[in-house]
Amino acid sequence: MDRPKDKDYIETVEGLIFCVVGYLHPPDRYTAYLKYIPEASEKWGRGRRRYGRAIPYYHVTQVEATYRLLEERYPQYLYNCPVRGIRVSAIPRSRVKRYHRPRERLRTLLRRGPIDELEGKLLSLVELLSRASGLRPTDFGVTGSILLGIHNPKFSDIDLTIHGYRASRSLMETIKAGVEEIETPSETWTRDWCHRHLDRLPLNEVELQEIAERRWNQGFYMDTYFSIHPVRGEEEITERYGSRIYRRIGQVEGETTIIDASEGIYTPAIYRVEDTTLKGENNIEEVEEIASYEGLFSGIFQEDERIRFRGILERVETEDETYHRVVIGAADSDGGYMKPLNR
Fold first, then answer.
1. DSSP letter at 57?
2. Is residue 229 within 8 Å of 262, Cβ to Cβ?
3. Could you identify which of 177, 220, 296, 315 might form a hypothetical disulfide with 183, taking C-beta atoms 3.0 to 4.6 angstroms apart as the criterion?
4. pLDDT of residue 79
């Protein structure tokens, strides 16, 4: 059985639907955030069961808002994680009714064919990207509402996953080089995107514009918006739960230089750094990595790039060493940011 992966989905015995986050999971639970709840709705549904979104968009403040609902009605899904030292939403394996895997869902659709227009666009897009990049269709998966079978062809997006570092890099290079049938976001769409994120991130419009221009993993295919989410391959999940202990020190900001961006394509995006300067009074001489759970900062920074950041400083303890890192998009924070300096 494959280990849990970022962008998998879980359906509980109560009908709640959670999205799996990252790769650090207790042995008897899945770390995930609440995405859909059963309610009378004309938007998302499967058969007679209808769903509404628990959060309008992904951001740490929105995820934490779901904790209040869980605390009131489903406290069994909140977990004081001894490894991370924080409270998270985590699904006991005993409460799982159905586990949804993106690659399995896409394979099913490839075998049986589409039953609506959106599924047809999805399969056509996968064929196009496979042909352009030289990848196999089975390197891809489908997440989001299509994974769950609750999508609405009138307005739902296509959310793809691409599995493993080699495949993810190949697809990134292909899309950056341009694929004729894929349209990049227009100036109007990008401007609206920036305006929507002004209230969500501590960045100004110029800084958001630069981030938007760096993002490679979104576009339009046959007038439908799509996104692509790199996911670690099975052999790339190396951290064992409890092999590292994370302890918060406090919020910090500063500047640093990225020396390894190879794991920056995933969630969390891991950027190895050096030559870090931290503002404020602290005794930390060096930070070894920045880990971002905010997806906007995934895959947009390169080696040798100098960046500015704000996030939560953590001490990481292993059997052999202790080091420090900064977390962006951490719980109980404003989310933080990363932005380039040497433009």
1. S
2. no
3. 220
4. 97
